[in-house]
Design a protein that fits this description.
CATH topology of the largest domain in chain A: Rossmann fold
Helix content of chain A: 40-55%
Number of helices of chain A: 11
Low-confidence stretches of chain A: none
Strand order of the largest sheet of chain A: 4-3-1-2-9-10
CATH architecture of the largest domain in chain A: 3-Layer(aba) Sandwich
Structural class of chain A: alpha/beta
Strand content of chain A: 15-25%
Oligomer: homodimer
Largest sheet of chain A: 6 strands, parallel
Largest interface: A-B, 32 and 32 residues
Distance between the termini of chain A: 29 Å
Chain lengths: ~270, ~270
């Protein structure tokens, strides 16, 4: 038994969609979340910069005494895996759990991947899936506008602009007749209703946050490191900047009010 | 006469659209450009963070020996004006020159403003225009998705998604019957053809980069600080990160190839 909290980080607030899944699955666990809102988005930065940021983010969570780390960030998990491998505690990226969930779901072996530009370009999901099952075909689509749509709150199925953007991104996946689509960015589950409308019910959507939360439960169970409680887990939120509309956007991702347990830290205090 | 270069900075590469205008107007002047690509975008950050970044950006240009600074960034010019006021050389933000150009263009006194969320929220254009002419009415629309559309290269008039997003943003301005629209972000001139299609020829678009370039020419002329050449100005480009697709995106904003005179600096070297 291990009463320490679970650490979760993301480049911004999107990772709260993984916290939402984690709270649903492990409601007794304490969670420390760090959103690097002063330096978001990571998806458009160079791999060297992303890795430096990821190491600093892990350092911050280690200093908070966490028992494991979820990098709830498709970009970090794809581009900066080295930052997650040489830590004194286990770390979970999104690629392996999400890839495994997609492999379990597909019948046709034709899998679509939606992600940020860097996640797609990195080829990390391709490599993982090919290594697990060389017969699988992966069709990737970078969807940078999805991030802005979600952050604008334009997530409704009646929003013509959102539907037009989604149609354009999804057209190649429809042409390739995929039966499973990975939502490889924490923002994308909020667009799941729009995406499902366009792809149809025959396509399974894989939520990376849900896959990470399930992997975390399995990992802690296997290590006998759950905290033994079924209710009452507390969440602490740290951010490196406190943008306007913070509460509204954060609560949208979390699926419930974030409350006032939020601390802003100085981004220049993030070091190795 | 002053042979020192003109300094221009922006949170990213968008400011190169102002450099494009500056080169057209003052082809003999040397220009030093700094794009803070490691920390882009500024538009979603807190005012305190934006001001700190703007001061560091000015410091960087001062250390390069520039004779004046253009803050080709709607966000900095709206939110962090203090950073531009206590410098040993003149600095030009986008608000005053762009506001003056809009006032000169409007007949009806009904002016639209398109900008990032922070530019609009700051009210800087409203305050400037109201102070210059209390009878003018300003109708503002935050357009965060325009930035992503431009950076995705989705700028064509035949792009259904772009047109759908633009229609949604422009609808309130059409309803308000504006006759002049300020493109209050360096990215937006690239969407001018789409915006003009929707608004019609009766509406004048004001390009903030062009307005800044004209103001810079007037300022240097008045100070007798032009370098006396009509051709052969050199541009040096500095960025704090060197993202993939850098050349393509930079050349799109600049309107010509950026060439190889680009240096990447360490963002952690940006200090006050």
């Amino acid at each position: 038994m291990d009463i320490r909290p679970i650490g979760v980080f993301d480049s911004g607030l999107g990772g709260l969609s993984a916290v939402r899944q984690l709270k649903a699955l492990l409601p007794g666990e304490d969670i420390v979340y760090f959103g690097d809102t002063a330096r978001v988005p990571y998806g458009t930065r160079s791999p060297e910069t992303i890795e430096r940021y990821a190491r600093q983010d892990c350092r911050f969570l280690l200093d908070r005494g966490v028992k494991c780390i979820i990098a709830a960030c498709g970009t970090v998990s794809s581009v900066a895996t080295a930052a997650l491998t040489d830590l004194p505690i286990p770390a979970i990226g999104v690629v392996a759990p999400t890839g495994d969930a997609a492999l379990a779901a597909t019948h046709s072996g034709r899998i679509g991947l939606l992600g940020t530009t860097n996640t797609v370009r990195s080829g990390a999901f391709h490599r993982y899936l090919a290594q697990k099952n060389p017969d699988v075909q992966v069709f990737a689509q970078a969807c940078p506008l999805f991030v802005s749509l979600v952050e604008s709150g334009w997530i409704g199925q009646d929003n013509e602009a959102t539907v037009a953007v989604a149609r354009r991104y999804l057209r190649p996946l429809i042409e390739q007749q995929v039966d499973t689509v990975i939502l490889g960015c924490t923002h994308f589950p909020l667009l799941a209703p729009v995406i499902r409308d366009i792809l149809g019910e025959g396509v399974t959507l894989i939520d990376s946050g849900a896959a990470c939360a399930a992997r975390c439960r399995d990992l802690l169970t296997g290590m006998d490191a759950l905290n033994g409680r079924d209710v009452g887990g507390q969440c602490s939120f740290f951010v490196s900047d406190h943008p306007h509309d913070f509460e509204a956007v954060a609560s949208m991702f979390l699926g419930s009010p974030v409350g006032d347990n939020i601390q802003q830290i100085d981004p220049e205090s993030l070091v190795l």
